[in-house]
Amino acid sequence: MKDQVNDRTDKYGGSLENRCRFALEIVEAVANEIGSDRVGIRISPFANYNESGDTNPSALGLYMVESLNKYDIAYCHVVEPRMKTTCEKIECGESLVPLRKAYKGTFIVAGGYDREDGNRVVVEDGADLVAYGRLFISNPDLPKRFELNAPLNKYNRETFYTSDFVVGYTDYPILETMT
């Protein structure tokens, strides 16, 4: 979907509409097959992984969420523009607010949220739900920790996406074993 990597010259390249066409065709096909209430999508219009950014990520995100409205899917999950590839939060002028306002369905956000930020974004109607990735990996009992406002385990990024099924996935202590 991003203009810095999509150099196609057919109906899937060039304009914003064309670059988004494939993703929207997939959403439509899957929704028609299994029902739109069982379909969700995650988009990262602001991400610039491996130099795959877009010159106007706000327009890209807005076009996608507006286009998704017609499918009445279960949710749209969007990654915050404040995330760097190193998974650190940065200050930036971009915001998901225009996307949230434009999208008519369940809007999920992700990217650098802690307990307080997550509660705030939901209370302020910036999202319906907040997704937690790294915090859940390192805290298998994350909902309980949030409920108790308990300290969190720090995640070890070096153990992400390895072939070891224990280290980094099932070896983080749960709250009861820490007391």
SSE diagram, text form:
Blueprint: H1 16-34, E1 40-43, H2 57-68, E2 75-79, H3 97-102, E3 107-110, H4 115-123, E4 129-131, H5 134-138, H6 142-148, H7 175-178
Parallel strand pairs: 1-2, 2-3, 3-4
Family: Belongs to the NADH:flavin oxidoreductase/NADH oxidase family.
Cofactor: FMN
InterPro entries: Aldolase_TIM, OxRdtase_FMN_N, Oye-like
| Strand arrangement, major sheet | 1-2-3-4
The unreliable regions are none
Q: Could you state the oligomeric state of the chains shown?
A: single chain
Count the helices. How many? 7
Strand content: 5-15%
Number of strands: 4
Structural class: alpha/beta
Keywords: Flavoprotein, FMN, NADP
Protein name: NADH:flavin oxidoreductase/NADH oxidase N-terminal domain-containing protein
InterPro entries: Aldolase_TIM, OxRdtase_FMN_N, Oye-like
Family: Belongs to the NADH:flavin oxidoreductase/NADH oxidase family.
Brief overview:
The protein has 179 residues and is of the alpha/beta class. The protein has seven helices and four strands; from the N terminus they run H-E-H-E-H-E-H-E-H-H-H. Helices cover 35% and strands 9% of the residues.
